[in-house]
Specification:
- The chain is of the alpha+beta class and 300 residues long.
- It folds into 2 domains: 177 residues, no CATH class; 84 residues, no CATH class.
- The chain contains 8 helices and 14 strands.
- It has a 3-stranded mixed β-sheet.
- Helix 2 packs across helix 4 and helix 3 packs across helix 4.
- The longest helix has 19 residues.
- It starts with 35 loop residues before the first strand and ends with a strand.
Length: 300
Amino acid sequence: MALVMSILFPYAVTLAFSGTAAAGEQEENGMDSGRRILLDRETPGYADLEDYLVGVVARQMPAEYEKEALKAQAIIARTYIVKQMGEETEIAESSLDLDILEKEQLKNLWGTQDFAEFYQKIENAVNETAGQVITWEGELIDPLFCRASSGKTRQGDELHPYLQPVNSPKDVEAEGFLTVTVWTKEEFAEKLSAIPEGEGISADSVPGCVQIGRRDESGYIEEIQVGSLIHSGETVQYALGLPSPDFTIEEYEGNIRAASSGVGHGYGLSQYGANERAKEGWTAQDILEYYYKNIVLISE
């Protein structure tokens, strides 16, 4: 089954969490990577790709993370944008599906006291990886990532052979790793009834009308039956507003309770796991070669 890009990069896209980026200055500041972003906003302009990446990484990964983890994220973000560019050297910002935060918003996020330090830290991570992208058999990969896996990352499909399950045990220590959500039966049925191309679900039929079918080897739901229809784990996850497609559902004191493990879709690099490995002395390349198999880093 082909992986759907909307659930892969970023988390929401997540991650999505990930789907939000921050931009640097809207005018070129002298750096010339040979690639640039057209800022097709109310006041248009251009940003060099490398300058733009500072803001992207600043939003995608916590600035408190280790430098080598931030460098790995910079390579991931660069790979994504360059892949979207294709043969071109310019791309419209609106085509990247990235929301933007300006520097003033980053100051609000980090606080004025930490802003200069954090911005410089991320700028260094981008500069020290300048031009580096991830390839598999000569082609740019889809650099999927999540905030934290459920303890083991997921197997990719035939289009993503570099995504192989790897253990990421310290992810269980990540903030928000275990999420428990409780609904009334009426609320739960209403959410399930709103699934696109789904069917109406009555409160008196839950949770019996929900049957988890197949899970992958990492524990994520691949198929789940709701009423008479089969859906993907991600479809039901989104309908219920859960942070991960690794979840359980049960009746609890007359209500419905779901327990979800991990943050994000579980494919590719785990940001929390990458940071823990960076603490142990792993380099950005070590981290990327662990989470993406048989890859080669090249400089564009």
